[in-house]
Predict the 3D structure of the following.
Amino acid sequence: MSDPRAEPRRRGAYAKGVARRQEILDRAIEVFAERGSDRTSLRAIASAVGVTHAALTHYFGSLEELLIAVYLASGDADGEREPPSDDLTPVGMMIESARTNREVPGLVQLYSSLIATALEEGHPAAKEFATTRFARLREELASRIAAQQASGLIRGDVPADAVAALVIAASDGLQTQWLLDDAAPQHEALAALELMLRGSASRAPSGGDGAQ
Amino acid sequence: MSDPRAEPRRRGAYAKGVARRQEILDRAIEVFAERGSDRTSLRAIASAVGVTHAALTHYFGSLEELLIAVYLASGDADGEREPPSDDLTPVGMMIESARTNREVPGLVQLYSSLIATALEEGHPAAKEFATTRFARLREELASRIAAQQASGLIRGDVPADAVAALVIAASDGLQTQWLLDDAAPQHEALAALELMLRGSASRAPSGGDGAQ
DNA sequence: GTCTATACGTCGATAGAC
DNA sequence: GTCTATCGACGTATAGAC
């Protein structure tokens, strides 16, 4: 659990404030990991962290932004960040991510709640979080998929960006289904998707006919 | 907690009460269809319906149960109920459902919020709603898929229940992606899934080699 | 700059009057 | 059966202590 926090902080915040903010954030992450995303009131988090609820708004502006920060920082801390090999399929990445999420179910709860908030009107911070997350993920996955289509690893008769959106949607949806009911065939569904994506319609990786 | 009538209302309610409840429910559905799932406080709904918020809890027990009732009744009213032909693929059903949902975006918001609530602890009504919905949908879809695998319409090398979970997850996830960003390739992703499910690995529906 | 103390308006829920 | 009254908890905003 190393902690290389060289995160670029906006504007002229000073070391003391940044450190304190990070300290509060780390503690909040622990709270979420332990107790799930229940008790997610400003006052409850504040008392767990050891400050008053006003201090949280001082550093994070609003509950919504605090929750977003917690989610983002949790993902970073979990080492969810990328050194995946080029041959790892998108579905493989999903499985990896789902496995770490399974160990900290509170984060999936939190994620689901953030998405629901983003869908409502009048929550610009949550909306921007969700929109940029999906856009970035789709872009990342699509280019990876396109490369794997070119190498024949993934079938070439489906558009890369559509497959990216599909894989993300399936990952999100299956996690919630599994969280609600252990009997949901999450792993089998991912395996099926993996199988169906296999480069069955393409030749050996010799010809450059992959995409389209 | 210590409330003795934790159980939902038994079927012994009288005609007058039932009619009034339905009246309130219908009005609440209109409110959601018009204004989305914002302003979803008991007081806001009550004032739109023309009663006080205490009256709503009298008929529905809690805000959570009212929201569930609104969602369920909206689905029924939309004619989302099934007379789909046996040849309609699961993905086709998703597209159909997504099209009606697109006309009433408030319902997707509401659905997403209900799922997020169900994932938290201490919300048994929402949890039961979500769990039974997914279980029923998976069961329905799986048997339909198995039949179409036997007839060669869907490839037979993937387990029917896994495909069912996958299709539901993809449908849910793609709808939220699209709702957040019109540029999300919802339709293309569904088309890709449809294509990949096609019975490419199976022969003509003569031999009984289809499923498993 | 940090943080506490305090206050405001709204929320879901409940008790009791009519 | 429906209202009024009230409760505790919530998110937010602000004043001022360090």
Summary: Chain B touches chain A through 54 residues (CB under 8 Å). Residues 3, 41-43, 53-54, 57, 62-63 of chain B lie near DNA strand C (CB under 10 Å from a C1'). Chain B has two domains: 15-75, 82-197. Residues 1-12, 204-212 of chain B have pLDDT under 50 and may be disordered.
